[in-house]
Every structure is written in structure tokens, then in C-alpha cells.
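Re: the request from the purification team.
They wanted to know what the chain is likely to look like in 3D before they choose a buffer screen. I agreed to run a prediction and write the result into the notebook, where they can find it.
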Amino acid sequence: MTATYTQPKHEVKDLSLAPLGKQRIEWAGREMPVLRQIRDRFAAEKPLAGIRLVACCHVTTETANLAIALKAAGADAVLIASNPLSTQDDVAACLVAEYGIPVFAIKGEDAETYVRHVQVALDHRPNIIIDDGCDVVATLVKERQDQLSEIIGTTEETTTGIVRLRAMFKDGVLTFPAINVNDADTKHFFDNRYGTGQSTLDGIIRATNILLAGKNVVVAGYGWCGKGTALRARGLGANVIVTEIDPTKAIEAVMDGFRVMPMSEAAPQGDLFITVTGNKHVIRSEHFDVMKDGAIVCNSGHFDIEIDLKALGAKAKEVRTVRNFTEEYRLQNGKSVIVLGEGRLVNLAAAEGHPSAVMDMSFANQALGCEYLVKNKGKLEPGIHSIPVEVDKQIARLKLQAMGIYIDNLTPDQIEYMNSWTSGT
């Protein structure tokens, strides 16, 4: 029998979508066994009892399973969207109607609504913030100084967010601990590489229905997200070109079998461009000028600034929607450039985001990161802290066990050898 809840304050598209959302949340949960085990323990131990928590995340089926686990832990949680196009409206409705979790998120919400939802979240006066891009923390620090004393800490799971947190710490304005979920091995090795790689191409194909085999695909950035995207594109038969600013990553891309060149050289050659750098204006005015007619550009980095759409718009004599999440910019020079998902995360704008199996580990890190902050309240210095290695390894073990895979353990003799300096040749 389904539990009933008093509907909290919320702002979602349509509560009647809740039954569909419930089916999809449960389907995703089948692929999230690690988080399920954590949720079961949380339900018994209530490690977040009395904690006011705000989660600013992509409101997807996977995030819903995290939110349910946090509520099971006793948290008084509010969920808002971290991106205007990533919300799945049926999921948002279900969390309100079926689980009694306040959600403020509507797919396609405008910038004004998005900013207002950040303020609504901060009105909750959180003790812990789960952030995805650091918007809530940055707004707190800039506009809600009176609430800083109530913050136990934050967890952040994006490269973009960690960059912002490091800048905040350097400027002396990060006055509480931040858990770097993004750099946990069980996050970036899997979520960034396998999740972004698969879901980015899923979004592109759903939006365009193009054949990737034989296309020149330009991947801007060869971090973990870029590696996964390049690998998956090559697997579908694309000729992959990588652009980079880091010489070490560029060498790695070359040795992985990809062509490497500056964007200025790649721009006339590419059929499809994918940005995954976390920086701004990676594709800009001079690149649009030399692109092929009908070149497709999209972004899978966190913010919609990697493609300079303002410059592209200034060159366009007409902009028209040709498919869902697909806009054609007809330029003054007679050529056209196709933009997917308004330059926002194409894997969430045009598809469903990462597969549940990889988000299982990412959100396990988020859940355990929150527990770690509470257990160590007052003990952690302000600044950025890594997920403890033992927590990271435990998540990996749980995932392996759920997959029916077991590994060796060190023998006492091996442990002694690894901890000794006297043994040798």
C-alpha cells in the first residue's frame, strides 16, 4: 500500500504526472544497489535527523533515489534544479506527491525562475548543501552572510563547482568545509567517463537522429568527460578530433589514437562539436566563421557558456527550431550552424542524463559525504576535503558485490611485505 504524505510547498509542472514518475524512479532504483543499501542503513540509523538540507541537482530519476535516501536518513530536505533544462517533470511531481519532498523545479524554467528557486532553497536555512555547479553556495556567500554560521558544510560533484570552490577558498570567503565528491575515484572514473560518454551521444542522437559513423567529431577537452565522449564517439565509427590546452592531456589523447589540434584548425573540419571543458567560449565567433554549412555544436559541460551563443546570435539573420532541442542559426554568410539544447547539457536537455548504474556510485558518495560532514561537525577546517579513501573503496566493494564480482585480499605475508623497507632483491 502506497504511503500518503501531506503535500509540501512546491513548484512543479503538474502533480498528475506523479504515477509515471514513480514507475521511472523505481526502474532507475533497480540499477542503484549501492545507494539502496545505504538508504536501508540510513532508515535504521537516521544519521541526518534534524538536519536541514538543500540539494541543487539535476532532477532526474537517479536524483530522486538520492532524495529518498536522504529523507530516510531523517533529513529535512528541499530539492531544486541545478539546470533549467534537466528537470524531469514527472519525477519532480512524484517526489512531492508520493514522498512528501519539497521540489522547486520545472523543465524549461527561465533564468528568473531558476534564480528565485535558489533563493527559496536558501530560505530553508540549510545546514548542509548538496551542490551541482556551486550556484547555491556562491549565492549564500554573496547574499546570505547571516546564514553562514548555520552551515555544517557542502558537497560538490562537478568539476565546475570544485573550480569555483577553490577560487572562493583562495579569496578567503569559503568559511566552512566542502566535500569534493567530484574527485572521488568511484565518481570521476565512472560517472564522468562512462556516464558522460554514453549519455552525451544519447542526447545528440535523440535530438538529431544523425549517423555518427564517418562523421568528424570534435571533442573539446580531454578530461574524464572528454575521454568518455571521445571513446564512445569512436566506438560508433566517428573520426574523432580532440582539442586541448593541457599538454599532458593532449599527449594522452594522441597516444589513445585521436587526432589533436587547436580549435582554429578543427573548426573547418568538424561535422559535430562537443564541448566538455568547464570553461567559457571554447567555441566562439572566429570558429563559427569557418565551420561547414550545417555543422552541429553542443555542450556537455556544466554551464551554457562553453559555446559563445551571443556571438553566434549576432551573426545570424534567422534562428528557427527544426527539431526538439535543435535550433538552426542561419548566418549572414549563407551557411547555417545547428545548436543542440540551447548550449546547455545536451545529455540532460535532450535525453535522460547518465545511466542509473553510474549515478549509483556518485550519489552513494553524496549520501555518505553528508553523513561524514555531520559526524565530523566542528572538526573539519574550512576548505575542500576529499571523500575519505576508505569510503571510496567501500562504495567500490559494494558495487562489485552487487554485480556478483569478488576480488582477492592481501595475505598477511603480502601486507608485511608492502609495509616493510627491509625486504627487497
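For the purification team: The chain has two domains: 15-187+353-402, 195-349.
Please add any questions underneath this entry.
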